[in-house]
Amino acid sequence: MQIDIPTSNPLGSTVTAVTVNELLGLNTLGISLARIDFAPKGLNPPHFHPRASEILVVLEGTLYVGFVASNQNNNRLFTAVLNKGDVFVFPIGQIHFQLNVGYDDAVAIAGLRSQNPGVTTIANAVFGSNPPISPEVLIKAFQVGGDVIKYLQNQFWYNNNS
Fold this sequence. Notes:
The protein has a domain at about 15-120: Jelly Rolls. Helices cover about 15% and strands about 35% of the residues. It is built from three helices and ten strands; from the N terminus they run E-E-E-E-E-E-E-E-E-E-H-H-H. It has helices at about 120-125, 135-140, 145-155; strands at about 15-20, 30-40, 45-50, 55-60, 65-70, 75-80, 85-90, 95-100, 105-110, 120. The strands form two sheets. It has a five-stranded antiparallel beta sheet, with no helix packed on it. Helix 2 packs across helix 3 (about 145-155).
């Protein structure tokens, strides 16, 4: 049975999570799932799960995936191009992403090692915090002008809940 999940948002992706928040029966089981639907060129943006490792299985399509190792590992980027049936693991707490590099829709399932993995989308957290992070902090951290920071803070950051 084909399930059509809308992906007509700025990122071209939709994450449908099944954590303890959606299914109380997961309480104390240490697992959760997410289905990620991608339009062509859709992105599940850089994010991390503070309480869970993740294993991703591609059901349809072709995804470019990756994660960034920690500072002590020189922020090394690990990437792969995954096709239907391929699997990739994202370590706990590491910034990671998925991009549909195909011309058709893509679908993946993520298994997470926590009933409440949490998620922090990097762009939303840095440029869409409430209240906003001081431009002085961001100008110094990113080494760009105040106009760039103001532009980024004024963008609508789509919260993907992935």
